Amino acid sequence: MNLNDIRLIAVDVDGTLLNSRKELTDPVRAAVAAVRDRGVLFTIATGRDILGLRKLGDLLSEGVPVITYNGAELRRAGSEELIRGTYMQTDAAREVIGRGLSGGFSVIVWSRGELFIGQPGPACAGYSKMYGIREKELGDPELLIRRGITKVIWAGQAEEIAALERSLQTRPIRDTVCCTSEASYLEFMASGVDKGAGLAAAAEILGLTRRQVMAVGDGHNDLPMLRWAGCSAAMGNASESVREAADFVVPSCDDDGLAAALRLVSDAYDRGERFTEMPV
């Protein structure tokens, strides 16, 4: 593994780029600037909508594909232009929403950049504040299903969500994939959607190979991109299974672990040949 071969770095947001208090620290910001100064493209791979990234937009390389909704959408940094979108099939969306509501969960639905919530409860309190938008009442799901649904979330108690995820990994809802982003959120997308597929698509757009891509994350939804990337780092706050999937482990998000990972790349460039930033 040659770190000075890296041309693109994709990082998760919560628990990776941001610490446990949802803060972007000065050491992490400086480390991002340092790799970009060395010509490395920097992007984000997240379960969030593009709206939840606007405060972080200055970190991103201009025009680079940003992986949102766990890979269901690729948006271009800066313009927020939709490059690619993958929406849930009608029957799958209907079943996921119906089972979530009948199971007593708060059901969060993203449709065409708008946020809808059914059966609001403590588990989803403050969710819309993260995006700076006002959620709307779910109402008749059929209207949204016809419109196009990017992602559905069941919000509930962490223990119950973890048990459901294990169950659905062996008996999934047809034409869907699911994963946890945070302990209280079980997220559903269309089959074939994950951060690994999103990162592969972003690399293809940029004309890069896996060997030229680095991924950093902490959650189970980061596993596909950690496994796809030619170089991967897990945060110290990640679970054992995530740490085992990565090439190396850095300190936790509260100890500026991402800065440590990025410094490895910067140091590798300083020992080798530098190049100018690639056009996007």
Structural write-up:
There is one protein chain. This protein has helices spanning 26-37, 90-102, 141-147, 158-170, 195-206, 223-228, 240-245, 257-271; strands at residues 8-11, 41-44, 65-68, 73-76, 82-85, 106-111, 114-118, 136-137, 151-155, 176-180, 185-190, 213-217, 231-234, 248-249. By secondary structure, it is α/β, with parallel strands linked by helices. β4 (73-76) and β5 form a beta hairpin. The protein has a six-stranded mixed sheet. A five-stranded parallel sheet has the order 2-1-12-13-14. A three-stranded antiparallel sheet has the order 3-4-5, with helices on one face. It has two domains: 3-85 and 194-271, HAD superfamily/HAD-like (Rossmann fold, 3-Layer(aba) Sandwich), CATH 3.40.50.1000; 90-190, Hypothetical Protein, Haloacid Dehalogenase-like Hydrolase, Chain: A, domain 2 (2-Layer Sandwich).
How are the secondary structure elements laid out?
Elements (H helix, E strand, L loop, with lengths): L7 E4 L14 H12 L3 E4 L20 E4 L4 E4 L5 E4 L4 H13 L3 E6 L2 E5 L17 E2 L3 H7 L3 E5 L2 H13 L5 E5 L4 E6 L4 H12 L6 E5 L5 H6 L2 E4 L5 H6 L2 E2 L7 H15 L9
Parallel strand pairs: 1-2, 1-12, 7-8, 12-13, 13-14
Antiparallel strand pairs: 3-4, 4-5, 6-7, 6-9, 9-11, 10-11
